[in-house]
Amino acid sequence: MYGKAFAPEYQGALTTLSVNSSLTDVLAAGTEQLRAAERSGARAEAARSGLAVAEAHRRLGQVADADRAWKASYRTAREAGDTGAMAWALWSGGTLARQRGAFPLAWRLLRLAAELGGQAGDVVVRGYSLAGMAETGRIQGDYAAVTSLHEQLLAEARKRGEARHTVWALEGIAQIHRNTGAYDTAYAMFEEAAEIAARAEDRRGHAWALRGLADIVSVRDQDVDRALDLLSEAEVSCRAMNLSGALAYNHKMRGNVLYRAGRYEQAREVYAQALAEFEAMSEPRGRALSRLGLVKSLARLGRDRAETAADLAELARVLEGIGLRHARQMVERARTELGLTPESEGADAEAAR
């Protein structure tokens, strides 16, 4: 049985904040409490308030502010001798590093956060940090290395009855199944995640689960209307909470759904919107994936083949530079789909003689 979702990253005087609080409200409350704690010399409280500030900035896509905030929270926690708060700050920094595409740094910070969380006896930050490591590996495409960790964390979350963490783990495993073609299993796990999140009033987790369901419905069932309806439902929550990153990924998925349905002009517009959103928050992975969708849409709309091939070659370098191990496969699939493989180019030349 799962209880109502809570946000353990909102600590100290900010524990009254809801997991569904608007991020602008979180930032305002966190900043106010941080200043009050600094004035009174309450370093431990300042570190914990600073964590909420860092997380609000990160989720709003304000990367530079988030980077300054988590580092300040860590320094203050260290001065206060608060090992648990140090772990939470490192978790925030590691999560930000992953968001920025700095995967080696994300691994280091999250591993340190898990170690400090264990030393402090804080099972929640330890679990969140291990979860962050698992998600980092999953995003990089290293499924073999992190699947068992995902499953371990899911079992631990179920045992504790922690809804938010259970939802996260279900969504991570579901994404692995989706990416390896096990659509039915992925759908069932996304569906369970959506149900748990809805009952626990976890709007963020629910929005991500709906995005996953929309993807499966589009790929497996080719049901465009239902997929778009699911994404529209998720978008309401993203906007209500000012979830900039989740909203941008929602839009990228909308572009995927429209592209698969052959609605290339609409897909082009949505991919361009998502690209602008990712650029505004300096999110390299989302930016590259949106560019890939945009390049494919433009190719379908008659763009010059040589220009398309050049863009795909550049994107292959960008994606590999980010550290996405399956990047080459993604670009190769795009080349094959658009008839830009060496074999197809040779056939075109032969036919033109």
UniProtKB/TrEMBL annotation:
<protein>
    <recommendedName>
        <fullName>Tetratricopeptide repeat protein</fullName>
    </recommendedName>
</protein>
<dbReference type="InterPro" id="IPR011990">
    <property type="entry name" value="TPR-like_helical_dom_sf"/>
</dbReference>
<dbReference type="InterPro" id="IPR019734">
    <property type="entry name" value="TPR_rpt"/>
</dbReference>
<dbReference type="Pfam" id="PF13424">
    <property type="entry name" value="TPR_12"/>
</dbReference>
